Amino acid sequence: MRLTKFTDLALRAVMRLAVAEQGTSLTTREVAEVMNVPYTHMAKAISRLQHLGVVEARRGRGGGLELTELGHRASMGWLVRELEGADEVVACEGDAPCPLRAACRLRRALRDAQEAFYATLDPLTVSEVVASPTGPVLIGLTGLSTRRPD
Predict the structure, then answer these.
(1) Chain centroid, CA 12 distance in Å
(2) CA–CA separation, 47 vs 55, rounded Å?
(3) What is the DSSP string of 85-131?
(4) Does the pTM exceed 0.85?
(5) What local confidence, expressed as pLDDT, does residue 12 receive?
(6) Mean pLDDT across the stretch 86-114?
(7) Distance CA 69, CA 67 (A)
(8) I want to staple 67 with a disulfide (CB 3.0 to 4.6 A). Which of 71, 86, 104, 112 is the partner?
């Protein structure tokens, strides 16, 4: 199974926010720079994370992004499920439905495999995922690779 780029981006944002120093806030632009992705893509991911209650965003002076308590203790399986949506691994329905869909055993096997993938992530929390050695690497990211030399 392969995660969408959107989910990958959102997970990286959550991980970076999880290691931010207590009482400090990063902006969406700073997270985008550190993760070396376009601001507009990161803004969409942050918006979805806000909707899920994982990230809190404050505007104005002293504003920024912070991971909520839910964000720190969220299961990675839950988070990936929410970000990926309910789509199946294969598209058996749609504009050109598969002629095997009524008698296909593969569809069920793929659905089971997808759930096993999520179940593997269920016991992991965001806080556990950013434990050492990952956390120090996240803290050390600067986003310099996105800047052009003067």
Answers:
(1) 6
(2) 9
(3) -S--SS--SSSS--TTTTT-SHHHHHHHHHHHHHHHHTT-BHHHHTT
(4) no
(5) 93
(6) 83
(7) 7
(8) 71
